[in-house]
Amino acid sequence: MKNSILIVDDLTFNRKQIKAVLKDMQQIEFYDAEDGFQAIKEVEDNDIDLIILDLMMPGKDGFDVLRELKADAKYKDIPIIVYSGMDNIDSINQALELGAYDYFSKPLTMEQIQFVVPVKVKNALDSYVQRKALLRMHEKMKLELMLANVLQQTLIATSKKDHWLICMVNIFLVMKLVGIFMNVYSLKTMSGLLWQMFQVME
Questions:
Q1: pTM of this prediction?
Q2: CATH of 3-108, one of 3.10.290.10, 3.40.50.2300, 3.90.226.10, 1.10.150.120
Q3: What pLDDT score was predicted for residue 169?
Q4: Residue 92: CB partners within 8 Å, gap ≥ 6?
């Protein structure tokens, strides 16, 4: 499974340089944005796992992007690594206070190219992927508990075989409500669950 990295910088050279620095990383898909407006659109249109963000850009700058994404519950957990000039430490501190995951300075030194940036990117990606896996597990457990409750209530309400359809409809409604319909359970799995319930209600 590929990880998606969005590189946001108004200079094409800088975007290409960062891609070159990360060229040895496996299973990476890159997205580009040349300003803050395009960055927000790329995040909305794609499943982004990490953002590498230049702070100083014309129009909507990196600070604006940080504020907007961190204020949105859907995107606030995406790790954002910011970068700026070596003499701009105050800007880096401000970005970290706004919720940036990490930072590096430019121009890039040989040490940053070979070790620092790749390690920071790997750590950020690993952290986010693990977080997403835990959230999926939590949602799956929540769904299983809701399904069990629906089954229990339906069995209490009726023991007639003809009423199995009521339980099936309730289950699909529950899955739709929690927003993970067919993402946690495949059609085959759902069919198996419904068949088991049908057998129990005979």
A1: 0.71
A2: 3.40.50.2300
A3: 59
A4: 55, 82, 84, 103, 105
